[in-house]
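FORM 7B: Structural annotation worksheet

SECTION A. Query
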Amino acid sequence: MILDQNGNTSIITQEKVTVIELVKKIQALYPKFKNNNIIVALNTLGVFGKEDIVEFLELSNKHRATKQSFVIVTNKIDLDVVPDEIVVVPTLQEAHDVIEMEDMERDLGF
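SECTION B. Predicted structure
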């Protein structure tokens, strides 16, 4: 797991372990970046399905409840099967765009 900090955004990149192992690592290290927006970049992993994305649901809901963004980046899943509660985009630039839009919405009180 590679952790980069870009302003108030933590970018977590995963290269080798399974999604379940990654979720466990993020949960263990969560206090380290709980006050930041989180991007989880999974483009280097192989193809995975809805059940893998759903592993992030609890963590995503917990983080979004604190008025922070949680975005998963992958171009290896059909976005039609992703639950609406999880934000998944195909590129890192789109993840930053989503965070920027969500920050504006929060500033406006939405």
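SECTION C. Observations
The radius of gyration is 13 Å. The first helix runs from residue 19 to 33.

SECTION D. Sign-off
Analyst initials: ____
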